[in-house]
């Protein structure tokens, strides 16, 4: 399988790392050729390709879509370019991996879902946290009924790089370049986890957005921040679960804290991305000995772990992408479904837009369309 | 000072414990006579008085209000009886301590505030968590600017005694006896902490309530639950802080988890009542060495600690009531203000009612009147 | 039952607190009269007695031993005075509670054991940590085989008040006044816990002592420290358990960290006094879901908890003394044994002396005599 | 630089991973050719080489030592073969990386040290935990005096795969194949960390070994275990630090717990490999706000982190090998020293042997020769 990655910054590096390592950890999957790295700046993409292990480069993504030696197109561009590239790649019969978010609007997501349904190739949306072993284990345990029926959930994704009001302006704080603020950037991960762990969708949402620091120092003087610094929502699912969501870039002391907590009728689960090798399971039972159990998710019995190191050797953030690549390659070879699907991306985007709609309406409970 | 406590169940025991011990730990306060314990059942109140150290008993609270040897009337009845007793005691010139909540409605709270303002005696509302040393320290640190300007807060109070849908009906689940569900019972503590720690009030609230289990087994068959099992809100203060609030009785694995987190522009604070001797402080600064610092709040430099044991010896839940009694006695002696005031109780009740109003209006942002 | 406490500083206060509160929490035990507080300084003992709730005072401990209205003599003097007072009290037919350590030498301990065996009254040694609910639960779980056969144990008691080489000289750092250093002061608690939790004794020990700071500033200039700042030992029990012991007063950042860890063939237990309401239990089993479980030891099913507050309300350090007093009163009433016995004190002292002997012999494994 | 790795099981895979990824994260180092993977079984090494990214294979390690296209020989064989291969490679002028332990005896280590001193190539010993960012940061902080003068240390390395007495016999439990038991396997890492963090050596040791389960089920019936299951030691350094060491394979509930704690005169440091992205620093100071600070060692200001992902994205166990490879390549290019040196391996081995000697002598304090 020949692969091309479009983009070579943060996500391009993370995906390149996955393609470079997938065979070493998942020897059962089809061999991969790291064919082409794509970037607009020829000099820089050449250097990146050399460092990251790519055979060649291109400066126009259209080129790789036309080539026969490329089977998989992996889209790591900024979100507002996802749709155009992915639609073209699907139309050309390629297998397509799109880094999250699927796109910046429900309309674009719907177009991508339609294209994926009609396409010859497989489509995968890169919600990489689905391959955190602890979260994959959490989904298994929920499915097995280990915590009973989930009633309440509590999700947050907290960072702190904007705590200081003097932190400078960046492209991420302008609506035209970033699409949205923390809600789209981090909230999408949290909403997808809720859908993934529960196996059902959010149907109604009520929400609030806030820009705590409305102006920040820019390169040419003070500039207006046009996206949200933090957002809060109450989410309701089909089956009646109520989930709270809180996302922030001003949560001082939290570096990358995607936290998930599910409360069921006979147990609960808790996760924090800052300790991604751990899952906390409580099972109601003997009152004398029950309590939160911190499972170190590094045993061969745990999802994905057989592929990696002996028991007790912890994984890092980037290993999730390698496992994601393996799942994709296996699905392609077996011609079987693979998640996250583009539908999953659409479902998440609908929730985010419902939160924005609710905020505009003073917090009113709003249908998501899921 | 002669004291009478009205009520001898959970809160009556906790307050009796405080009066019995206050002189031993706070020898500077005026000596206290544990004069009368009041309860309707003469036999049981006699037994309780003997166990708890009271000199005598009464079966009608009106009796102690009339007596000259009673200086302090401490109201530990159910919430719907607070107003009547406290108003009578204030009118009789007694010093009055009312266990939280001040009352079950804004209207009653307003009457109590007015009465306290006009009264000769001191009035104290028993939000006992204000005397958790870690929370008192948190307030000091906020006031000193150690975490900068607070922008975002995150509060929860989570218990799990209703997780199981088969957990039986109790008086706490009937609106007529309990006034409200978890929102009033636990939410009031959380809202008061927000007011206390920030030194300002919630002016707007948006909220949702939910009864996950609408019917429960009662002594005479299935019965309808008429209060909330869980509640969520977004709260806005005068200065622009946004706080999330989540309270629940179905949060499996959480026993008594009042959690508070304040995010400021240069630091943050975190607290969990299940580890009440600890406060977690993060101070932004040298990126190489900063992070959450777990302060063991058991040093003589910490609030209230000089009165207790040597450094490193942890306190429990009930010590908060003893410190509260000491503060009350000291305020009476010095004729000085003491918090929580009845105004604090009114302010909290207004927030709770605004959350209920917002819920009824589909989540719409609602003014609290504070 | 009339009680006298000898001593009114730290331990005298802690024991007075227990006598003052025992009836309120353990109404089944015989009523107690807080008869006499004994101290050499008449003025100060008068004040202490008033604060702590004692009916009267005495300045000579011999006086209370002769009085008929005193049934229980509670010895809270410095350790080197324990033997004389306790022997006299036992001889006079009193029930005797001795605060740990039983005495400062094996020889004195043996005399006390003999006297207790011959006495009419009950004798109790105040190893109060046996009444920490989490440790009492640990003992139950070991006895029930929940962790299989214990093979390895790990104990420490770490404090940090001597970390700074400029911390001043005190009576605790002079052999003549303190008997020994940290080994006797803190090591005795840890050794007793090992005996208590396992239900067997240490038979051999190998150890090392160290005084990190040999001189400290005293009131009249530099003074030589004549006791240990830290100690280490390897302890072997009858059944073949090997336990490590580490005690220190220079463990910067540890305030009062008595930690215990027991490793069994099918599980383990972990405890830290700084979080005394928690016990961590691991049970080997399903590799997917096993791990350390943090039990919040605040349920009515847990030892001592029914006497206190509703589930989830944490206890503090001083509650252990109240529960100890209740057990003592109950044992006296029922004429039944109560632990810790004076034999327990002797067994612990033998281990401490074997560690000192081993240290003097370059670390050689030494029989304890147990 | 052409590289050959000798061995393709656990360590061979971990080192191959490092060579495959080093350029992607450390683009400043010389490009590496993954030339030859060496293993005795031709079929299996072919498959491993294909999966792991090697250009070719060999079945005799002597072959790669003679080849001109191999610059670096990376020895991942079992420990008893290290010396022969490494001596030959050094003699042939290769740069040599030896996985820990350097060798199974002090005598072999001394020969390797001598050979390295005389060699043209660079020699590196693979104590990979020196490249855990949190431990590298700990060393920096000690060096900067952030915790004052270290007085006491506490090290352990605890696993639990032998807790169950029915766990089967393996080559690791036979002296002839494994050299030693847990002391050599895990103790070596802990001793090296002590040397590394303090920058000085252990000069005296006192120790105890224990085989808790003397016989285990083997493939041909019950077999005698000839190595230790657990070991304990007290270690003394040049400057007077006393360190305790405890290593075990029966520590139920601990999976891969290398823990390090350093207590200094003005602070302390704590680390646990199971949470390898965290370092806990306590700095004595303002008693109101000091306590253990959990530093998330994932900021660009932290050692090695600039090479990896943005702030807050955690690393795993295997990343340490990649950073180690980068440091080695950089040292080769600059012709500069690189640690761990073979002297470091000798120093650690001397401590392990002194512990065994002490054990044989009943625990007597023993000189290490360092």
Question: How is this structure best described in words?
Answer:
With 370 residues, the first copy, chain A, is an alpha/beta fold. The first copy, chain A, has 2 domains: 2-121, Rossmann fold; 132-340 and 345-360, 2-Layer Sandwich (Dihydrodipicolinate Reductase, domain 2). In chain A, 33% of the residues lie in helices and 25% in strands. In chain A, the strands form 3 sheets. Chain A has a 9-stranded mixed sheet with strand order 16-15-14-13-7-12-11-8-17, covered by helices on one side. In chain A, strands 3-2-1-4-5-6 form a 6-stranded parallel sheet, sandwiched between helices. In chain A, a hairpin with a 5-residue loop joins strand 14 and strand 15 (278-283). In chain A, helix 5 packs antiparallel against helix 10 (342-360), helix 6 crosses helix 8 (182-198) and helix 8 packs across helix 10 (342-360). Chain A is globular. The two termini of chain A are 35 Å apart. The model of chain A has no long low-confidence stretch (mean pLDDT 96). Chains in contact: A-B, A-C, A-D, B-C, B-D, C-D. The interface between A and B is large, with 43 and 42 residues.
